[in-house]
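Before going further, learn to read the protein records used in this course. The integers have meaning only within a learned vocabulary of local backbone shapes. The record below shows the convention in full.
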Amino acid sequence: MPFDYNMMFHDGTTITADISPTSETRTSGSKVLDVRSTPAKGMAVVLAVGADLAEASDTLQVTIEECATVDGTYVEVARFPLLTKGTGMPGTYIRRFDSNKQFIRAKIDITDADAGSDFTVASVYILLAFHPFINL
């Protein structure tokens, strides 16, 4: 594993449905991260997508959300661009955010445009980093 597994929102597991983690235990490749609170200059999230979507009309939307409790009501703090087949995939994206909450998650929303329950995208990694490291 080339990345720090403890700082991964999503670990590359193939995505076939929406993922909204509410636990620090990894399920379907995703989990909530306990960050206590972010540093004064904030943090960054890196979205690395290593494969394209299977079908032209399918979409992938990743948002970063914060919450005071691991299983409470999450609020969006950052949003990545909406990804579709052939537009920005494969690719890497970075979003910075500040938070005073203890728990952060990556919410993954997919749209299977033909409603055939055949959505799939592989090699998606979502990683937490301190933004001075990213040199933005």
Q: What stands out?
A: The domain at 5-134 is CATH 2.60.120.1110 (Jelly Rolls). The chain has one domain: 5-134. The first helix runs from residue 131 to 134. The helical segments are 131-134.
